[in-house]
Write a structure and sequence with these properties.
The chain is α/β, with parallel strands linked by helices. It has 3 helices and 5 strands; from the N terminus they run E-H-E-E-H-E-H-E. The chain has one domain. It has a 5-stranded mixed sheet with strand order 4-3-2-1-5, with helices on both faces. The longest helix is centred in the C-terminal third of the chain and has 13 residues. The protein starts with a strand and ends with a strand. The mean pLDDT is about 95.
């Protein structure tokens, strides 16, 4: 089974259950366990929390949502090509 996990907690649980070999894609926030970072990143936040304070992140996310924009970018070509069986969101 091919699993794409866009939730850090979901990714951690999958690896803890021994299903890491079935994970075929992750989000840019999925950084644990370390083995997860070897998987393709298919979803990225449009707001980089590594260079902003938490208040700035909140303000930027709110601005995107207020404009009706999705705060995340998704690699749709990857999703079509890989066609995962399960997507955790």
């Amino acid at each position: 089974m091919k699993i794409c996990s866009l939730l850090p907690s979901g990714t951690e649980i999958l690896f803890a259950l021994g299903l890491g070999d079935q994970v075929v894609g992750i989000s840019d926030l999925c950084d644990y366990p370390p083995e997860a970072t070897s998987k393709p990143v298919v979803s990225r936040s449009k707001v980089d929390p590594s260079v902003l304070s938490s208040e700035e992140v909140e303000t930027a996310m709110l601005a995107l949502l207020t404009r009706g924009e999705n705060p995340y970018s998704l690699d749709q070509d990857w999703l079509i090509r890989e066609s995962p069986d399960v997507i955790l969101t």
